[in-house]
Amino acid sequence: MTMTATQTTSALGGVVRRREDPALIQGRGKYVDDIAPVGTLHVAFARSPYANARINSIDTTAAKNAEGVAAVYTHEDVAHLGDLIAQVVVAKARPLLANGMVKHVGEAVAMVVAESPALARDAAELIDVDYEPLPAVIDLKEAAADEKKVHDGISNVVVAWEAGPFGDPDGIAQTRQTIADAKALDDTVTVSIEAVNQRLIPVPIEPRSVLAEWNLGYGRFEVYSSTQIPHALAGAIGKTFDVPSNQVRVVAPEVGGGFGCKLNVYNDEILTCFAARELGRPVKWTETRREAPSSTIHGRGWVATATVVGTKDGEILGYELEAIADMGAYEQNFTAAIPFLGLFVGSGQYKFPTYWKATCVLTNTMTTDAYRGAGRPEAAYYLERVIDAYAREIGVDPVVVRKKNFLDKFDEAVVSPIGFALDTGDYATNLDKLVEVADYEGLKAERDKARAEGRHVGIGVSTYCEVCGFAPTGLSELGFSWATYGLPAGFSGSGLVRVNPDATVTVVIGTGPTGQGHQTTWAQIVSDRLGIPVGRIRVMHGDTNDSPMGIGTFGSRSAAVDGSATYEAAGRVAEKARAIAAHLLEASAEDIELDADGAHVAGSPDSSVAWGDIASAAYLPYKLADAGLEGGLEASVIFDPPNATWPFGAHLAMVEVDVDTGNVKLLRYITVDDCGNVINPMIVAGQVHGGVTQGIGQAMFEDAIYDSDGNMLTASLFDYPIPGASDLPSYELHSTVTPTNVNPMGVKGIGEAGTIGSAQTVVNAVVDALSPLGVKHIDMPLRPKRVWAAIQEARG
Amino acid sequence: MTVNGRSVSADVEPRTLLLHFIRDHLRHTGTHVGCETGYCGACTIHVDGKAVKSCTMLAVQADGANITTIEGMASNGELHPVQEGFWERHGLQCGFCTPGMIMSASALLADNNNPSEDEIRHGIEGNLCRCTGYHNIVRAVEYAGAKMRGEEPPPPDWERGDR
Amino acid sequence: MYPRQFDYVAPTSLDEALSALGEDSKVMAGGMSLLPLMKMRLFSPGLIVDIGRIGGLDGVVDNGDHIEIGALVRHATTASNDLVAQHAAALATAASLTGDVQVRNRGTTCGALAHADVAADQTAAAIACGAVMVARSASGTREIPASEFFVDSLTSALNPEEILTSIRIPKAGPGEGSAYDKLGRRGGHSDYAVAGAAAWVKKSNGSIEDARIGVTGVGTRATLAQGVAEALIGTDGSDEAIKAAAERAVEGVTVLEDLYGSEEYKTHLAKVFTARAIKAALAAT
User: Fold this and answer.
1) Chain A residues whose beta carbon lies within 8 Å of the beta carbon of residue C260
2) Percentage of residues of chain A with pLDDT beyond 70
3) Which among A592, A613, A677, C204 is most buried, taking Cβ atoms within 10 Å?
4) B129 at interface of A, judged by CB pairs closer than 8 A
């Protein structure tokens, strides 16, 4: 039997091979679509072919009479359930099924439930809908002009997030005046870029899937869903169907990637529950890849003008961003709050005055919401692109310009120009390390040599500061909570640690991982505190039966918040274990040390007691009565840090462009990330690899395209290319470590950092490669056609 | 047909894809459905020793074929070297693409157990992964290749740099 | 993911297959192009005639003055077969750049040609290599030059009751060489061709005696770029001569804009890859 992997002994900070892997590498992981109770019915939706249309009639007769069909539902069947619940709805919530109007291509109009997925699909084709098409609003500037409405009687402008700094309305005018004054000076340079940060389709490789059962006797839902937020889904189901939250069990089993798009409660989840209750049978819906762009949220979708004014030697005197952000036709979970996450880091890691505004508008398209980075990649993109353009304009090395404008190193909170308290930062050291490990000067020499040979090689750098580890619960006042789902919870973390009578450990956490390896990382945290080896620690997550409270996994928050809760809980258990051991050894608790075997008196290894004896004593309270100790060896902690965390980093890309075809080849990609202390370096590196790749995907390949009538042109992977293995180089990863002071482990978060730092790094590199030809900007994705067109334009 | 060494037979509709036959009839759910255009490769299996996308093959076309799925890769409690490589080198995160990726990588190494990085990357270009950026998948295949050649695998990244 | 209902036959002889074909039927070999369309319900034939169990169609055969590639020869075989490499290098390259490993293991060269996708690779190579398409029906056999085989988007010269049983490619003689190159949709060689070109040249005494160029990806079909060959023949094959000839790459072609390129860009790419293919073909002589 060789089913073991290499392990190191160090718990916190050491490489531990993942405990999730043995099942997954043998095809034994259970994802929602792998679960098939006897008698399961299957769902298919009839969807709108129009971006905006009135529904004159829906004829479901043929579908209802088709082979194997159990039911067909339209809006009137579910009207009593109301609209889809979402956390932040300013303008327009999504109807569960289209209510007399359709507002984007692919909107669900009718739902078929049948004996097999194929029969459901067959019957859905028989639904006859009479539509009266209406003009669609697709273009963002047209939407912002607000003349043609997406919804009658509702402004297209949902909200405008404006700050300079945030929370100081009077400061905005002053900041704008400061920037205007700087622009008016003779010896300053003003550089603007108008750029699109294009709409993206998340594409987790597992399509979403939901399986619902209704237990008539108990009045209880049991639901399996491919979600990052099982607790919020349970809350939404409970609230929609007026079922107490403790009678809704939601399980997120193995989830095949999420990247934010599974951080949402969807109408298909509610509708599947509805059908299960109506029909008294298990009901399952599994998204097809081609319907995903209509059923699962998109990300990004901004157009903005970014402006920098500065001196001729690289001192930046002000930065302005004016953006329009696409919300789609309906608001879902956090839709309009996503650009606000960009505002958090509107001034990045810099010290100059910043004015920042994002106007959120409705269009006749699929809803946008959180996609890896969620607002922060957009914010970093504009800031770091325009700084690069400014550096190029004044002829100063972009690295020098950045360093010149960084905030100084700080280890106590510092308020950024945009108005938020950053936890800790040391940006210059981080960038210096990139310059060193990449041999930046050597690379520049290599680039210049290539140029002399007529090749078009470029180097791009970007730094970034992001915000993650969401918490604290005070943010609930800004809408960052699950309050509308009936869970009056801000984004705190939960962790329960229990040493069982046989000296194994059960850990229950409130996260909803989609590949981040929590079963491994959390075992390391607990092992570090208790001394009990990782192999005896079982970590459970994603089942609302196990844990009463869970916020889910998103916003690079799990380790910093739920991890800290678990760290604290394990600390309390350790304390209790020491007290029990002290009692059993007749020693003082302060002198007890825990290890893999049990506890011993410091300096006296022979005076020891095994974990089994500590644990069994814990469950025989009479043995502890003398010491005034209660039975049990467990603790549960809700952790609410005083601040979010603010990771940062610096990335470098080297590219070569074939100017005859516009083809871009990514030659090298080097990162120096700082996510504070690291629990498992192997897992952190994996997060950087994946994050960077999604940023490269945006920079080079991906583009969710609607035509001017609102038709989705990129619904299949034929037309929505995500990066493949042969498109990418191996990455070179490095780090600096600046621990946060807002949690006990000093960890910040790394899930999104790679994405936030990378798209503009690649664009900066391509612009650098083509700068000798006069190219100043190219919009993403840098498909060969765009690169070639930019070269032609620059050449005149 | 023979699946993982066992003979199986059933009557199916012509439209039943081999993928659905394996998942729904045989209940081998390690073979995954990730797209419908034959792009993602999550459904990759071996048909008569060759890597094939089971979503782009009818079950009836496989009549009489010898099929291996991810469930058939480990034998006698021993992982296939590629499975071991994925575990050792963190070649997976969410795990959804992983079975297909392992099937493609093992077919690649069966033909050439000492591929270059470029050959590995082209050998798995029919399999999409959204989590790993392929970096550690390449390392996993390199590990497995070394094992299959009877050599010591190259050290992991985290023993070479500072991350 | 679930095709509409259809009937299915898997005959073991060509005659049986030919007699099964009719207006609402479709021949399937590897199914790599057909099944995705059926799963998306963009195409739903009433009858699938699976030719995969017919014997004798899976070989690459030396027939004296030409090689013959059977209907069931997979892309992987075309890409690695010695006879193809020797006599139709452009086709071997195009096959090696078709799809991905799994697609090349199942899909067939003849199937890809019959499918006539505007962005396919092997279509251009078949034209450049002077392939002759052998179409069989119950009433007889037709031979169709590759240059006349691709009619429109997803439309070949085959009738519904015909099967492309093989293609024949003249053997390469002294001074002859061919090559294929393209830009893929994800850049480099990845994915379908945004534009691609195959060239076959015959050189003697330092000048180009004969040439055929096939262009794919840019119009509604793969085409023979007759003008390029005319301009090239008689020249010394210098870079200047190639560049000038390549200017005629899309003569007579209606270049179509798509998500991957404007008309102007695709026209330009066709010229670039025509020149690159000619250069590579000359290098291979």
Assistant:
1) 783-785
2) 98
3) A592
4) yes
DSSP A534: G
Number of Cβ pairs < 8 A linking chain A and chain C: 59
Q: Which residue is listed with tokens 């005629």?
A: C248
Touching subunits for chain C (3+ Cβ pairs under 8 A): A, B
Chain A contacts in chain B segment 26-65 (CB below 8 A):
27-37, 39-40, 42
Using alpha carbons, select from A664, A734, A662 the residue that is nearest to residue A692.
Answer: A734
Single-letter amino acid, residue A616: S
Write down the residue that tokens 């180097």 correspond to: A459
Can you tell me the distance from the alpha carbon of A311 to that of A419, in angstroms, rounded to the nearest whole number? 24
- What token pair was written down for A662? 């516009």
Nearest to residue A273, comparing CAs of A111, A69, A514? A111
Average pLDDT rounded to a whole number, residues A719-732: 96
**3-state SS record for A349-410:** CECCCEEEEEEEEECCCCCECCCCCCCHHHHHHHHHHHHHHHHHHHCCCHHHHHHHHECCCE
Question: Cis (ω within 30 of 0) for the bond into A472?
Answer: yes
Instruction: Classify residue A784 by burial, with Cβ atoms within 10 Å: 0-12, 13-18, 19+.
Output: buried
How many other β-carbons are positioned within 10 Å of the β-carbon of residue A52? 28
Cβ-in-10-Å burial (0-12, 13-18, 19+) of A35 comes to: middle
Q: Could you tell me the maximum CA-CA distance found in chain A, to the nearest angstrom?
A: 90
Which of chain A's residues have a Cβ under 8 Å away from the Cβ of C190? 724, 726-727
A700, C102, A731: which is closest to B40 by C-alpha? C102
Q: Report which of A546, A162, A229, A534 is spatially closest to residue A370, judged by C-alpha positions.
A: A229
Strands C140-145 and C132-137, how do they pair? antiparallel
C260 → closest Cβ in A121, A660, A783: A783
pLDDT in tens, A653-691: 999 999 999 999 999 999 999 999 999 999 999 999 999
Find the CB nearest B61 among C52, C76, C100.
Answer: C52
* ipTM surpassing 0.85: yes
Which residues in chain B have Cβ-Cβ distances shorter than 8 Å to C50?
58, 60-61
Phi and psi at residue A777, to the nearest 5°: -160, 145
For β-strands A456-465 and A537-540, DSSP reports them as unpaired
d(CA A266, CA A254): 19
- Please provide the average confidence, as pLDDT, over all residues in chain A: 96
- Do the bridges between strand A598-601 and strand A592-594 make them parallel or antiparallel, or are there none, so unpaired? antiparallel
Confidence of residue A764 (pLDDT cuts 50, 70, 90): very high
Alpha-carbon gap, residue A440 to A445, rounded angstroms: 9
| DSSP annotation string for A47-65 | E-S-SSEEEEEEE-HHHHT
Tokens of C12: 């073991």
**What is the distance in angstroms between the Cα of B64 and the nearest Cα belonging to chain A?**
24
Cα separation, C220 vs A42, whole angstroms:
40
Asked if A724 and A786 touch (Cβ cutoff 8 Å), the reply is: no
Residue B27 phi, psi (nearest 5): 60, 30
Contacting residues for A346 by C-beta, under 8 A, at least 6 apart: A163, A321, A354, A356, A379, A383, A418
The answer to whether A367 and A106 are in contact (CB under 8 A) is no
CA-nearest of C113, C170, C173, C118 to C146 is C113
User: Which residue in this structure is represented by tokens 């914010």?
Assistant: A379
Which structure tokens are listed for C180?
Answer: 């294929």
Contact: B124, A717; criterion CB under 8 Å: no
pTM: 0.97
Placement of tokens 């916020």 in the chain:
A551
C3 touches B: beta carbon within 8 Å: yes
Tens-digit pLDDT profile for residues A315-335: 999 999 999 999 999 999 999
